[in-house]
Amino acid sequence: MICYSPLKVYREAAARSSSPGQLVLMLLDGALRFMDSAVQGFEESNFVRRNELVHNNVLKSQAILSELQASLNLDAGGEFGSTMFRLYDFMLEQLRQANLKKVVEPIRVVMQLLGEIREAWSQMLLQQPAARPAEGLAAAC
Predict the structure, then answer these.
(1) Residue 105 and residue 94: Cα distance in Å, rounded?
(2) Segments making up each domain of the chain, as ranges
């Protein structure tokens, strides 16, 4: 079956035409969006639906943070790379606790931290000259 979702096609094109720095920004935005959905899930009155919304969106956020952590170049990053690795560990643990205990505050803590990282990353990209688009990204349907 071939899917022709306009949104999926747009996202695929955006990913293929983005620089590595822009891809990181997209990942940060995605993680923040999923965490926001998890926080909104706490407002759901249906217990089962509430837990499903929180759980699924926290897992998506964790997957993105794990990917960002795995992409760190610890050899070239020096102290900054090590610090970011530990910060991602902290954020992942906060999300794990939020999901396990179904409490919203750890998610908000991570959203605050990641929002600051996202803003700094965005400012850094604005100060850099245009970079080459990422190559070799597979299309997903």
Answers:
(1) 9
(2) 20-127
Question: pTM for this structure?
Answer: 0.80
- CA–CA distance, 76 with 74 (Å, rounded to integer): 6
Among 2.60.120.280, 1.10.1040.10, 1.25.40.10, 1.20.120.340, what is the CATH number of 20-127?
1.20.120.340
Extract the tokens encoding 39: 């926080």
Q: Which amino acid type is present at position 63?
A: A
The residues near 128 (Cβ < 8 Å, ≥ 6 apart) are: 21
10-residue mean pLDDT profile of the chain (141 residues): values are: 60 68 96 98 96 98 97 88 96 98 98 98 87 44 39
CB atoms within 10 A of CB 130: 8
Q: Which residue has the tokens 């102290």?
A: 79
Give the integer Cα–Cα distance in Å for 134 and 112: 28
